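Run folding on both entries below.
>entry_1
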Amino acid sequence: MSDSSASYIHMVQHLIEKCLIFHMTKEECMEALSKHANIKPVITSTVWNELEKENKEFFESYTQSQNKDRMTEAETSAMIQKMISNHDHDHSKDYEEVGCSKDSDRE
């Protein structure tokens, strides 16, 4: 392997480690590196798999933590609805203060 290939793989590994700090899944990391660093998902996946082989205990623990901390789709939906509701409620006060209705402003 050439020095440039080794340094590229090392850079991908470093970026994957950053993804891990942000508690990203493998798929989220592949998507983020593809979008923001122009790294092909197959490269990220290959490097991730090698890291998993070299650090089995860490990744087992990481995966368990991911599964435990992940919200279900229903929980995520409920949280988003609550945020929207709170946002609308907070801004309805703003509309009342300036003397207009929330609905007429949205038309």
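>entry_2
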Amino acid sequence: MERRHQDRGRLRRNTSSYSSNHYSNSKYKHTSGTHVSSWSNRRRPTTYDSVEEKLTTDDAEREEGTSNSLQGLIGTCPFMCPGDLFLKIPRSEYMVCCYCPCVDFHRKVKGICSCVKIDVVLIVIESERAQRESLRDLAVFERLEGNPGKTSPSLAVKKFCRTISTKDVRASDVRPLPVLEETLTYLLNLLDSTDHGFELVHAFIFDRTRSIRQDLVMQNIVDDRAIDMYEKMVKFHVLSQLKLRRCGCGPDMVSLLHLNMEQLTKSLTSLYDLYDASRDCNSLYRNEAEFRSLYVLLHLNPTSHPVRESLSLWLQHVPLSVIQSKEMHFARTILRFLRLGNFKRFFDTIVGEASYMQYCVIEPYISEVRALFLSCINNAGYKLHPYPLTHVSKLLRMKESEVERLCNVCGLLITDEMGTKLLPTKQTTFCYPKDGFQNYNFLGLEQFET
């Protein structure tokens, strides 16, 4: 009996030692993989010498479990969510007691009595997928035939883990680039799902795309394919910002919008670093100008969503070819018109030049700009000459009935003289609505409203 406990203790210590050193002795360890381009010696317009250094020292990515000690890691997991890992260990290293053929202490160890002459012992390391099945921690999209305790390799997707201990990271738990691409495609296809509300779909994709970014950073993948994936994830957060606003309002929705905007800014920061690290001479990526312009558009209301760096300093590091692009010209023009108070040119420029993704970033601020316009009219107008509501609707590119509703929400009264609705000025009841603004149509951009 005493020998049995000694063997079991030796087994625990040895299996723990093996799991922690498995990666360091693995054949997958290398220093110059095919996924890591030779950009480490390039100088960039920041204080960092590499994307990995920037990402791993950044608070946002540190939260996602990155570490310099993972340099050279290449994932080997063939599934969207890691499956059980089967390891064949020499019997000379791991003895299994004949009285205990199956010992379960987070790792399932199966073998035969040590007196039997065998060469290997099979160790099964339980996967995330199996653990989540036992805990019934499966999202609606991961359940096999609706069973909350059963999933499959084609349904389960690796969850985001906030803290990762580098000693426990195995190559078999990290998905390589091709698997990450397939996983992202699978997730984005769920956006077309009509069986569940968008809030539920967004919550699932929101978490799983964070896990994808985590795997990309841990493997230090810097190439065109990684850039393409980041662009798709940024676009997801941009579109989600618009769709979530249309799902309703309330404390829960405000929290979702805040978290989505937080991940949008983090993803944009990582994408910009990838652009800089992968750039050759004065080359420009096909979508870079549009994605760079989003950072400028986020400054339309800097108090709502804080950005990481002042716009003037950020523009100093942007390539000249991007500054001269039509997308960046549009973003800077919109910001200038707003700060100058030229509301007519502001709305007209949006109708004439905005792309759908740019409009999704601008849309949350449009109602605030309209309310600001009403405030200016109310304060600067001549009291004896009310402002025609039809003129207001043309300037704000709204239906006249919606302009009237907006005025009422802001505490302004509308008068009717001989069938003509007027907006009296110098009203002291103007205020911004505490519960936020409703969604109003934007005349001229009906194709974006659907």
